[in-house]
Amino acid sequence: MLRLEHYIGLPDENSAARGKLLYHKAPWMIYETPQNWIYVSYSQLEGEMRINKISYFEKDYSFARIYHKDDRLFKLGNWNAVTSFPSDQIWLGQLLPDRNGFYLHSSGLLLNGHGLLFVGHSEAGKSTISKMLLKAGAELLCDDRNIVKNEKNEWKVYGTWSHGELPMVSPAHAPLFGIFILQKSDRNHIGLIKNQQQRFHSIMECIIRPFVTLSWWDKVIPLIHRLGQNVPVFQIEFTQDGKIVKFLQELIEHTEHSLQTTRAATPTDKV
Hints:
Largest sheet: 6 strands, mixed
Radius of gyration: 22 Å
Structural class: alpha+beta
Shape: elongated
CATH architecture of the largest domain: 3-Layer(aba) Sandwich
Number of helices: 6
Order of helices and strands: EEEEEEHHEEHEEEEEHHEH
């Protein structure tokens, strides 16, 4: 269970002053105390630092008390984040590893019930290949950031609201069929990455990180290894002609056929 509490008015005493300053870059200062993580949001006006909110998170981020300098934000309404931060990703990115998941810089789509993740940084082609698959009837989860999570030894992909060029998002999820490392090219080609270290580094490069600590990495790195071992990772090259969609459909059909053949060939126990 997760709990957030909002308070109007800053606390009389800023206990962050007793903590260890670990991060200081506008608009955040982040402190650690034996009991809490303390996020101080501030602005600089005429050379003077003004604190806008102070947030106290328990060490596992499951509970927070968020103090606002006044009630202006509450009167404005229409928040885009329940924490009132610029993005809840700052908070959720800390919670997910304890729940066997993390954010991945990717475009996620559902095609024939299968989750496909196209991984790459800005300008890698995530939105371009998403548009091609949308024309083929795929459902877009999010074209920029998605959540990958292991549930009962099955990897699944979940859409998020942090979209890029395409303003379509979905709360849907599906078993993760494969991860596709994007590469623009003058040909259409999909190749399985067999080297374990290459798969690991390809995923690692596109992990979306909150404020990271050693304990955060200790949770995330094993998850990346497991994902690379359990889910196929492909290098995908594509051109603008859209033919890569047929390649993906054939890959899914071939995999489904192979699984059906394997199941049919497996002898059943007699009762």
